[in-house]
Amino acid sequence: MDRETSCRFEVLYVDDGSRDGTFALLQDFQAAEPRVRVVALSRNFGHQIAVTAGLEHAAGHGVAVMDADLQDPPEIIPRMLERWRDGIDVAYGMRRKRHGESVFKRWSAGLFYRLMAALSDTAISLDTGDFRLMDRRVVDAFLAMPERDRFVRGMVAWTGFRQEPVLYDRQARLAGETGYTMKKMVSLAVSGIFSFSTVPLRVATWVGLTASGLSLLGIIYALVGGSSRRNG
To answer: What is the dihedral of CA 144, 147, 119, 104, to 10 degrees?
Structure first.
């Protein structure tokens, strides 16, 4: 940040209902550095809601979103800034490599993105997360969307605007363990598919029509069979 002398920065931390010493540590950061602000949620609402809360409180003309585990390196942000200054509205991180992740995690992530690409009416780039820099217009458009079940990367893609990737290698976690359990990952995938694809709705419609048709045939068969027995 100090090297980017052409911009004024703020750092906004979102504490998503932590139960350790995180909030106290963030308060110390805020007291020592005037460019730091802290948003503390009343409980753990989950990653996508936490990102939304951060965007609601961010004041910049451009807003960068990243996780605190440093798998997405802050050193990439100046490259995103350069693309933003060139007129790109969303410069999103696209992973070339994913260090420190299991084969299953890489396989399941790849499957999810390819499934989304096949089912979704909104183009969501492969191997991308929420690490990105957005113009204020995009942030305002995103915040105007009323969805309660939020899928940030899909919602940002849906807004349109000029969006381009910035390639980088994702690093291994420096410390701790991911809070994204298998249950949470499946929940996020389901939210993405149901929010950005009409395929589940079309499948439900055809299943309903098929069930209704079979029920109607069953009623007709019962009526015809009952009438035949009485005539006999």
So the answer is: 110
Q: What is the pLDDT of residues 120-153, one digit of tens each?
A: 666 666 677 788 999 999 999 999 988 777 888 8
Q: What is the DSSP string of 120-180?
A: -SS---TTEEEEEEEEHHHHHHHHT---SS--HHHHHHHT-S-EEEEEEEEPPPSSS--S-
42 by Cβ neighbours in 10 Å (0-12 / 13-18 / 19+) ranks as exposed
204: Cβ–Cβ under 8 A, 6 or more apart, which residues?
none
Q: Are 12 and 37 in contact (CB under 8 A)?
A: yes
β partners of residue 90:
134, 163
Q: Give residue-wise pLDDT tens across range 31-50.
A: 999 999 999 999 988 888 89
Alpha-carbon gap, residue 196 to 192, rounded angstroms: 6
The DSSP output letter for 69 is T
| Nearest-angstrom CA–CA distance, 157 and 152 | 9
In the block, residue with structure tokens 């499934």: 115
Q: Which of 163, 105, 114 is nearest to 134 (CA)?
A: 163
pTM of the complete model: 0.65
